[in-house]
Amino acid sequence: MTENTTAFSAIEWTDAGLRLLDQRRLPGEDVYLTIEDAPAAADAITKMVVRGAPAIGITAAYGVVLSARQHYREASHDWLSRVEGDMNLLAAARPTAVNLVWAIEQMRACLRVTPVEPVEVLLAVAARIHREDIEANIRMGAYGENLINKGDSVLTYCNAGSLATGGYGTALGVIRSAWSAGKLEKIYACETRPWLQGARLTAWELIHDRIPVTLITDNSAAFLMQGGQLQWVITGADRVAANGDVINKIGTYQLAVSCRYHGVRMMVVAPLSTLDMAMPAGDQVTIEQRPDNEVLELAGQRVAAAGAAGWNPAFDVTPAALVDCLVTEAGVVHAPDREKLLSLSNAQQPDG
Ligand code: MRU
Q: Is residue 118 domain-shared with residue 158, that is, in the same domain?
């Protein structure tokens, strides 16, 4: 098993089912839920028990194992169509992160060639997806760290760490590597309203690993840049379109605009499983809309004036032109565009 390099695992397969660290309850409580069937896995994704593009892909892959285990062992004559129904349910759990359908497609391909006794074979595929995600993150951590100069300060957004992936993290993987190399002066994290992934999860995760972090409100970022105290913004992605547009947590776009204005570099760290060459451009991606009460409330308490409406897109689109570099496990793409991503993706094909 690949070393996770953090002391906790947000996703763990056990014989009893899939153990998920309930991210809704962090940082207050470390509570694990045991997920026993695919509808429960889909529900955990929708309700953000588990979140982050690679992590929801891995969860969906294990969800397919749970489905096959249930339906094949019940020996129902139509077990395959029931698993197909569960895969559709899982794929619909959150629409924006491409890793979800990417992982389910791998499970579907495995099912096609495994018509009998599928459970162990599917479990091996899900475990491989999980392991390879950690390996990719460690590689991206090293590539990204190479771009950072000693004494640089960085700002990260949302949570693109161990909690959001199989382990180690994408953006936080780069920050972990750069911190271990002694390069970072200061690490800032935005709170990331409305769900507070930065305040609750990124801060928890870095402190857990004894990496110092300074939290800022989302509306402090441009002022921090104006003061010349920042060299990099480093984020993950939920999907990278074929032209290099980056779909990520709502607010990433405004950070990228501010970066360009202030001469701060924008690094997006995402595995190849997040690259969607079938999606021509970011403006064609379905952006998940979440309930308005997430904006109108804070920690379940209404803070907005009665009568105010909310608008709550979960993600936004950062045009490729605002991204200085895209770090993948296959290397760094500077100023990503359609041509560069096409050659990156062709080079990953078996005969590439
Ligand atoms: O709504 P979330 O918390 O799932 O959003 C997560 C992000 O936007 C992450 O940056 C992205 O999924 C990459 S995680 C490695």
A: no
Q: How far apart are CA 330 and CA 314, in angstroms?
A: 28
Pocket of ligand 1 (CB under 6 A): 51-54, 97, 158, 160, 164-165, 170, 197, 235-238, 248-249, 314
What's the CA-to-centroid distance between 119 and ligand 1, angstroms? 29
Residue 1 lies in a domain: no
Residues 152, 179: one domain?
yes
* C-alpha to C-alpha distance for 205 and 107, rounded to whole angstroms: 30
How large is the average pLDDT for residues 158-175?
Answer: 98
pLDDT above 70 (res 263): yes
Counted residue by residue, the chain has a size of 352
The CA–CA distances, whole Å, from 255 to 36, 84, 141, 220, 258 equal: 39, 40, 21, 10, 5
> Which DSSP string do the residues of 61-95 spell out, in sequence order?
HHHHHHHHHHHHHTT-TTHHHHHHHHHHHHHTS-S
CA dist., res. 351 & res. 189, Å (int): 41
Give the gyration radius of the chain's Cα atoms. 20
Active-site entry in 86, 133, 209, 238: 238
Tell me how many degrees the CA angle 256-286-240 measures, rounded to the nearest 5. 45
Domain with residue 55: its CATH number is 1.20.120.420
pLDDT confidence of residue 1? 36
Cα-based distances in Å from 335 to 271, 322, 325, 340: 17, 8, 5, 9
271 contacts 348 by C-beta, under 8 angstroms = no
Provide the β-strand partners of residue 34: 19
180: in domain: yes
Confidence of residue 351 (pLDDT cuts 50, 70, 90): low
* CATH code for the domain in which residue 160 is found: 3.40.50.10470
Residue 237 and residue 253: Cα distance in Å, rounded? Answer: 12
Residue 238 annotated in active site: yes
**Tens-place pLDDT, residues 213-234:** 999 999 999 999 999 999 999 9
Q: What is the pLDDT of residues 81-139, one digit of tens each?
A: 999 999 999 999 998 999 999 999 999 999 999 888 999 999 999 999 999 999 999 99
